[in-house]
Design goal:
The protein is mainly α. The protein has nine helices and three strands. Strands 1-3-2 form a three-stranded antiparallel sheet, with helices on both faces. Helix 4 crosses helix 7 and helix 5 packs across helix 9. It is globular, with a radius of gyration of 20 Å. 36% of the residues are buried. The C terminus is likely disordered. GO terms for molecular function: metal ion binding; methyltransferase activity. It holds the Pfam family Methyltransf_7. Keywords: Magnesium, Metal-binding.
């Protein structure tokens, strides 16, 4: 069945145990990270424009309480690419992914994000600000193994286990990709600079535990079983409609039980964190030409707490 964006790319609805509403604490924690940035941007807009009315839009992906997520639409090129022997079993970019396939994901993100910026530019008043928060990666090398490689690699292993048990057809798994790309700060900055539409005021990368309910500073997961369940519920809340559309709803409980078990085993060995990128930008004034213009970076460089720690 072909992917349908409206049908497949949304969060799990309702308010049940596996819903996005009940499993969006990672987004809640991200909001508290960006709250000072949001407050600063609001003050700057009000001071500069002195508007009679201010409009704030939350461009989220669900009806949940936070809606601070962005994922890229799967490209026709990626969906139409046959997996090589090297890529068999992969549903996301890993260190074993072929360079050709990884490049397709990168190019699709570049197109998607450039279009996203263009549309937001058209919506904002001059001097308006936009703050983006999304899952990224710490390193420039897209094939370098890190958080998302493990997170989605464990999901791929869980799907493969259902194939081994005869619950899924191998062909179904081989034709499945996650329509997700986690960029580096360098990639994001390059696309914004190339667009010439925004000044970047702030760029930051912070990390948050896979388990959104683990608020400890320890490097050890004290209850890996509970953390595995928590992580599985969070991923299910985001991925359930997409997985159900491709594989059918009957596998969901079995799949995410297996996934929770595999995540728990992973966390016994390593406490793993998401890398989250925060980007604050201001729309550039175009002048009388009506073209995109002005300096691309505020004061030459964006401020950042992790100044391009991407090597």
């Amino acid at each position: 069945m072909a992917m349908n964006i409206e049908r497949d790319l949304h969060m799990a609805t309702g308010d049940g145990q596996t819903s996005y509403t009940r499993n969006s604490r990672i987004q809640e924690k991200a909001f508290f990270q960006i709250k000072p940035i949001l407050e600063k941007a609001t003050r700057e807009v009000y001071t500069a424009l002195l508007p009679r009315t201010m409009i704030v839009a939350d461009l989220g992906c669900s009806s949940g309480p936070n809606t601070l997520c962005f994922i890229s639409e799967a490209s026709e090129g990626v969906k139409g690419t046959r997996k090589t022997h090297q890529d068999k079993g992969d549903i996301y970019i890993t260190k074993t992914t072929s360079p050709t396939l990884a490049k397709l994901f990168q190019q699709q993100f570049q197109r998607d994000f450039a279009l996203f910026l263009k549309l937001r530019y058209e919506e904002l008043v001059f001097g308006g600000h936009i703050i983006l928060t999304f899952i990224g990666r710490k390193h420039e090398d897209v094939l370098r193994g890190e958080s998302n490689h493990h997170l989605y690699g464990l999901l791929a292993q869980s799907l493969q286990s259902l194939v081994d048990e005869g619950l899924l057809k191998k062909e179904k798994l081989d034709s499945f990709y996650l329509p997700v790309y986690s960029p580096s700060i360098g990639e994001v900055v390059a696309i914004v600079e190339q667009s010439g539409m925004f000044n970047m005021n702030h760029v930051k990368l912070f990390e948050t535990d896979w388990d959104p309910y683990d608020d400890s500073e320890s490097d050890v997961v004290h209850d890996s079983v509970s953390s595995g369940v928590n992580v599985a519920r969070c991923i299910r809340a985001v991925m359930e409609p997409l997985i159900a559309s491709h594989f059918g709803e009957t596998i969901l409980d079995r799949l995410f039980k297996e996934y929770a078990h595999r995540v728990a085993k992973h966390l016994e060995k390593e406490k793993t964190k998401h890398a989250v990128i925060v980007l604050s930008m201001k729309k550039i004034y175009s002048g009388s030409s009506g073209k995109y213009g002005g300096s691309r970076l505020n004061q030459g460089r964006p401020s950042t707490d992790d100044e391009f720690k991407t090597k």
